[in-house]
Structure formats: structure tokens, C-alpha cells
Amino acid sequence: MWFELSPAPRPDDGDDRDAYRRRAANAAARLGLASRPSIDTLTQAWRRDDGCILVANGARRYLCLPDGADPEAADALARAADATARECDPPDIPAGLVWAHAFVPRGATISRTAFDEPDKDDDVRLDPPAGQWVVVNVRRMGWLESRRSKNWLGDEFNMTPDTSKLQKAGVGVCRVSVGDRDGGRAHRAAEMAANALDLGVTPGFASHTSRPAWGLVALMLPLVAAAFAGFMLLNWPAWVLPVPILGLIMAVARLALTPRDAAVWQRPRHWWGLTRYREAQSADLKTRNSGDDLEAFGPQRKRRVHAYAFQRSSLPVPPTALAALARPSASRLSQGAALTVRPVGLETADGPRLGRDADGRDVRLASNVLYGGVVLLGRPGGGKSNSMHGLERWASEHASNRDAMVVFESKGVSSIPVLKRLMPRLLVVDVADPSTPMIDLLGPGTPGERGERFASLMRAALGDEQVGPASRLMIRDAVALALTVMPEPRFRDRCRAAGLVAPDTWPQFARVVLAGDGVSAARALAHAAVLAAPGPDVQAMVERLHGAVNPKTGRPAVSDGELVKRLAAPMNKMDLLARCPGVFAPGRRTVGWRQVIAHGATLAVNLGGTVRAPHTTLGDDQRSLVGALLLRGLREQMESSCAGWYDAGRHMRVFVDEMTEVLSGGGNAEVFRWCRTQGRAFGVEMTCGTQFPENLDPSLFSLLMDFDTRCTFVMRSVASSTQAGQALGVDPSVVSSLGEHMLLVRTVDADWNTLPPMVVRTPWFDNGEPA
Ligand SMILES: Nc1ncnc2c1ncn2[C@@H]1O[C@H](COP(=O)(O)OP(=O)(O)OP(=O)(O)O)[C@@H](O)[C@H]1O
Ligand SMILES: [Mg+2]
């Protein structure tokens, strides 16, 4: 029965340094390596239901269990090897390979200090290239072997061998063979694979070419020759001839019938001969601490010591070494360039495609974990936007008309045409282009309500530090005043009469009234406003902004200097907005987030240069302010429009390419926190990308790294790769050595089990590859 082992994360053992050893011992026991036939089971001994065959090829690991093996054995070994086992067809080992197997050279000794440690996550013992097949065939230790191995170890160590790892329960015996088209490579690889067992054999291993079934032929040929010679020269009787000839014929027949892949199935041989000894050398006569044995030079000195206890091509294998060999190398990422194999957990994943694995199979996310958030990191030009476009395309193709989707773009000039191609339903809000609609920041209602809403939005988007309570009230009154008086027909005349240029847009009005052009202009504009729309409301707003006027003297209660100070903070914000004239151009169509969500729109908001030439852009501060207002507005609308969407199976998908462009101040971090903590109930699925993690606020970064799917493209600088590596739980060198268009992914499967880090090759979505 064949199984494929694919990488899974290692169980968290905490401080328990022996847990891996126990897992390995359990696997060995289940493989029958720690048991022995008894008188009752002796009749079944010929069945050979012990041991296993491990096959390593490239990044893949296969396991073959004998019929009748413990069905749990595959899982137990997989657990010990940080993998999951899945039944599969036998691996397709090509015919015509040269097979070599390792053996212990004569005179090799063993070092007593060889102990097993858990391999690090990115260690791998076997690492054959794609065209090479490493086969480790394991069986349990025979009766003779176990007796002899103790004596052998005892003599090697010149002490009782109980502390040796080769003297524990569950030590099996294995034969290590390697098949390769090139004989030389096969030999080298066989020696390396045997060394990977880390037995402590010094100086190491040698290798033979495997010639299955040739041995008997080689034995029979001299016998036939001898029989002939005896018959011809020594007058032996004629009946000595047929026996060896028959033997030879049978040996040749056996050779002919031997399957080509016999090396794979060759169990480790036994040594049935007499116990092997070798002559004791000076080193064998040393004590454990220092100096010579008392008897080292006396007549009683040890002259012979036990030699290697096994057939020389059979190597003892402790459980931990077996588990280490079984470890799929896909969990090793030390060479970033290596693509990994898709984990079993994602086999049936039905979400967006991230890329292709080492075998060219699609690696998809599980669609039900998307509300756990997706974050993409990577240096400029790494391919974030390309991957983001793939995710967006998948989302739009899998959206019902009850789902909504909003994409925040900062590089619309290059992205929007691509997105339009990938998503025919896409609507575009090009923030700096007045010919496209703009998202309404004010909402419906009376001027007072709209001013109030805008001021709250401003405060929420920028955070309490940037917009304090007093500033919020100023902004509210300034905007409400603008919205009240600007539509008045007399307003422009009043302005002209006061020697002012009438402001065109409400942010410009608010800016002037907040003393953006000086206190006298602010007072003059307020006066014009009162004249244009006389009434207690307007009067009250002006008084709240500029202070009351003493009716007797006509002097303002608040001095000019004092007023400038009071208005400075809110004025700065309105000043930024007033400087993006296109954004609030008079007569520009507006649409509210509420309508966008209600109509199930697929909307891209471009905060960068306009798609239409000339590519007008906003300043950096303006862009991040407008972006923050839009994102915050969306978040509030989602809260009121999308209640119960998750239960209804509806999706509110938000994509933010280049977070740093949209983020501003503390308020926006709250948006991500809200998405993470409450978004699920509202069906919110957040995907965001950013170039350099170290540019983000640390608390925001840790929030992002709590997302269930975290991906990164290559990061070259030490700071970025360290941070990304930590966040993804991989070595920073992996992040810094990723190849072009390779994405390192950390995600969970559909049952929310954490998966090991994967490296996939991203498709070129921008060029139309399907998502
Ligand atoms: N898998 C791919 N195969 C071929 N070309 C690709 C692939 N992925 C991305 N590209 C191309 O590489 C270029 C850079 O990619 P992209 O714009 O996605 O990078 P980015 O990480 O978003 O960069 P920035 O941080 O500057 O926005 C683009 O021209 C894109 O088309
Ligand atoms: Mg980009």
C-alpha cells in the first residue's frame, strides 16, 4: 500500500525536547520494528508485515507499507516526519536506472557521541534531484542481529552500549539504494543517503552497484567449472555434472525473471554466517576517560573484538533517523527558489488561484477562509498587483449580484486598464478626474446633518489625535455653513461686494472661513454668508466659529490672534481638501457607498494619477487624506448595509493595493481591526497589499500578520525580510532568496488547520491567465 507524505506543520512541542523522539518511537512501533514474532505468531513470520519502504524523489516522499501492516502506521510515521500521509498510486520509477546501494566498509568504526536531535524546520536529510530515486527499505532487526549488535556496540564503545541510540527499542535495519541514470551519481547519492542516517559510522559509507539475482549466477559458474574439471581430470563420476548445471540454469532463469525494479523491493539482507570479529587495535583498548585498559599490554589483553554485526549492506536505523528521512523536503525552504508541493489540505480548495506548485499543479486558497483576510507583501515590482488582480478577478467571477466589491488602487494608470480587461463589469471612480463620478463624503440630509457626518468621518478617519473634539466641531460648522449658504443665489454677489472671490467648492469655503486666507477674509466671508442667508442658524454657526460680536462696540469677542490659533488645526485639514479642486468640482456626479453596496457593484477607486491623460495627480498628503476618508466611509457603510451578510452567504470584498497610500493616521488602522474582529458577520473579505512592512505602524503590522493568509514576494533588505520572515514563520533568508514571480504563502486549509509555508509560482494574471 503506497502513501505520499506531504508537508504539514510540526506539532507545537513547547519545551518538550523529547516529543519528537516519542513520535518517532511510536511510528517505529507501529511499523513493527519494536516487536518480535512469538511462538504463536511465528507461523505468520513469513508474511513480513514489518517495516516499510521509503522512497524519496525530488521534493516528494512516498511510503510503502507491507500488506497486513498496522493501518495507523502511515499516519504515525507521517506525524513523526511533520507530514500528512495520503494513499496514492505507486510512484512511477522509470526503468533503466542504474541502482547503487550503500554498505559499511571493512574496518569502519562507530562514534559513541552520535545522538539525534530534532531537525530544524528547514533541515532536510534527503534531498535528491528530480531524476534521482532514493529508496530506504526497512525491516525489523533479526534475532541474531540484535544479539550481535549489542556485542558489537559494546566492543566499539568499550563499555556497555545502553546509552547508544542504536541500542533502543524500535531500531530497524535498512538498505539504502539509489537509482539514477548516471551510475556515478547513483553511487555518490547512495553514500550520501547512508550518511544522512547519521549513525556515527566513521569514516562513512561505500557503495556498490546493485545487480539483483547476479549473485547466484556468480556462485554457480565456478561450481559448474569445478564439476567439469573434476569430471574431465579427476575421473569424478558423471552425476556430479547435472547438479551444478541445473543450479546454473535456475540461477539464469531467476536472473531473467527478476523485475527491473528489484532494487526497490530488496529487503536488507541478513548475515547468517558466523559472528564477525576483527583484530583489536590500540584504540579499542582505551578506557572511556583516558589512558589504556589495565590489561592493554598484559597477556590477558583483548585480541579480538566484535566487528560489524549486520550484513554490510544492512544499516541499523534508529526511529528518529527514519522519521528524519521521511520528512518531505517541501517543508524545507532554505533555498527560496525551490517550489513546494501542494499540501493535502489544499487539494480540494476552491478559492482563488495563487500559483503553481513544484509539480505544476494549481494551488488555490480555500474560499471559506477568505474572510480571515489576505495580505500580500513584496518589494516594488515584485508582483503584488499582479497577484492582487488574480484575486480580484476570481472574486468578480464568483460574485453573485448580491455581493459587492471595492478595489482601492493607487496606480490606476497601469492597473485600471488591466482590471477592465479582467472584469468587464468594473465601474471606476477616478478620484482626481471630474468626468468620473466621485464617492459622496457628505451623505444625504440637511446641511447640518451633512456637516456633522463629514466632521465625524474626518475624525474617525484621521484619529482623535489629528482631529480633536474642538476641531471636529469647527469642521462641522464650517462645512454646514458652506452647504447652507453656497446654494443661495445672493451669495456670490455678497462675496463680490465684500471684495472676496466666491469659493467654488465647499472645502474651499470651509478653508477660507477657517482662516485659510487670514482672519479678515474669514470674517468677511462669514459676514457675507450671514447677509446671503440671514437667520438664526447661520448666525449661530458663525458665532461658534468666530465668536460673538459685541453689539455695542461692533468688536469681536475673540481677538484675531486668538482666532487663528483656534482655527489652525481644522484649517490644515480643510486646506488639503480645498487643494484638490477636481475631486470636489462643482457639478461632479456623486454616488454614495450605500448605493455602491446596494447595487452589488464592482468598483475600482483610483487614488493615483488619472487614467485619462494628462494624468493629473493629487499630492501625497491629499491622496492619503482622501483615501482615508473613503476607506473609513466604506467601513461605516458596511457596518450599516451589510449586517447579516455572512449568514446570508453574501460577500463584501475589499481590496487595497498599496495600503500606505490609503492609510493615514490612527483612524485607518481601526478599519483593519474592525474587518478582522467584526468583519466576518458582515461578509467582509479584506485583501491588502503593501510594499515594505517596516513602513507600517507596528500595531497595524501585527494586525495584518494575524490575517489567515499571508504572502510575500522577495524582500531583499535585511529589515524587510526579517520582519516578513518572522511574520510568516520562516527564515528571513528564505524571503530574501525567493525567485522572480515566486510567492511564499502561509495559509490555512478549509478546516482552518495551519498549513506549512509554501512557495508557488504566480501566473501572469495581468496577461489573462485564469484566476
Ligand atoms: N507571474 C508573472 N509573470 C510575468 N510577469 C509578471 C508576473 N507577475 C507580475 N509580472 C509583471 O511584473 C511587473 C511588476 O508586477 P506588479 O506591478 O504586480 O508588481 P508590484 O509588486 O505591484 O509592484 P509595485 O510595488 O511597484 O506596485 C508587471 O509588469 C507585471 O505584469
Ligand atoms: Mg503594485
TrEMBL record:
InterPro entries: P-loop_NTPase. It comes from the Bacteria. SUPFAM superfamilies: P-loop containing nucleoside triphosphate hydrolases. The chain crosses the membrane at residues 213-233, 239-257. Keywords: Membrane, Transmembrane, Transmembrane helix. This is Uncharacterized protein. The lineage of its organism: Bacteria, Bacillati, Actinomycetota, Actinomycetes, Bifidobacteriales.
